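Q: Right handed beta helix domain-containing protein, please. Structure only.
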Amino acid sequence: MERQIKDNVVNELLILDEKVNYENNIILQVLLKGETLNLDKNSIKVTVDKNKGLYCEENEECYSLNIKFKYINKKIKIVSNGEELQKALDDKTVQNIFLQSGEYKLTNGPITISLKDKVIIGNEETIFTNGIIIKADTCLKGIKFISESSIINNNCYIYVCKFSNVILENVDIQGNNFKDLNGIILEKNSMSKISIINSSMSNLSVGIQVNEDNVLGEIKNNKFNNVKFGISNLKKGAAIEDIDKIINNTFSMKENGEDISFSSGVNIGKGDNVKIVTNGVSFARKLSLNNNYAFVKGEGMFSDIETKFFQVSNDEELNEVLKSSNNGYIIRLINGKYYGNICIDKEIALVGESKENVFIVPNENYNKNVFQYGISINSSNVLIKNLTIDGKKNSKLDNEVCHFRDGIRYGEDIPSNNELKEICIKNISRRGISIWPETVVNTNIENCNIENIESQQGIYMNGSGEIKNCIIKNSRIGIEVNNKIKNGAVLIENNFICKNERGILIYSKEKDPESKNINLKNNFFENNLFQIDYKL
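A: Structure for Right handed beta helix domain-containing protein:
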């Protein structure tokens, strides 16, 4: 992986004794005395001189850096063909192998890695034409896989097995559209793990086939082009180590293809913290949003989940999508104004293009004798993000009146596991966010701004969940919670609460305002008549 060299800190560099023909800009672990090398892809020139000083030239300016040198004795090898590569792979004394430009294959079978901790470094003109089998911990960088034949061992270019931990970086797999030819397969039940960074896979049946009892590590900044299935077979026993490290991948699929597919029994986590995925909608949605709105499809008990993506620009389009939506759908609101009384009754995501420019506003043609609400939620597993709800934003209505009774409210179906993030709610007559009844479970409110609530609470939290990193001001009560919560607890953390009559009001059977169900941490109060108040 690339490292950034910084000034005024100690930078540890590895100095290898044997001279190496350095052909690319992929790694930073090779620096030689007297050699001038490209430090990274930004083409910063560095020189290590005889006095162990290092100088960088960037923008025609030279400056010295504080360097700590570390010498290692691991043997490196430069190879130019498949036979030389296989010999180096079978040599226990060789760790780093540099591939010169050219074609790499064996006449009697695929190249096989059986010894652990090999680092194999190629360049744009390093080509493997008959696949590779990996049976040990390995790192491959800067290699292209391509074949003119549909007959490749195990029907894939890279076959991983036997407890291997594999890292691929800057790898290009080109499939030539041969039927049933795959990019990477992890052998079933092999307890292997793969991480892939800055790589591409194209013209394949499957990009990555994970299979049972294997692990996805970091899958980042990869491109899947003209592939039927991008990441598939996340089945029972398979695991994603950290879902936040499956990020910024792009998918351009074949007709009726699936970017990511998963089924019941898939796990998430690492080591002793591995847990089976029970909330399929949340799991699929996070994968989709983290990967450029990827199409994620569930199977088995999650077969009703698919993250179809819709982009709307007006009320008519929004209402049409809401009527036809299924669990997992993601709706993106283009910048503009949308009428309130939006009712969500499926497990979907409603995401604005930007919080500053997507507005939910009152309807001037609404019956004045009936309450208007910004958004009503009648489902679990809902995400609302990146928008503003403003009860005074419609210029066709009296600007002295707050026309929304509540900004966001729960309906009668007792939703659970909902997320409200990066929302601005203002100019509301009763409640900014209304969470009830006390049987509601796990509502997470994060990074929201709530202000100018006329009669009651900025947030009314009558169920379990979290309120974190919010700004709540100019309300009669900033946050009101009730420790009659039936399931779980409430965490109120890192909020800025100001200019309210009561900052936090807790209804409690105990005199201690922080009862066992209500936890307050690192909240900041300013100019409230009462910072924390409670009633028995």
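A: Brief note, in case it's useful. The first strand starts at residue 11 and ends at 16.
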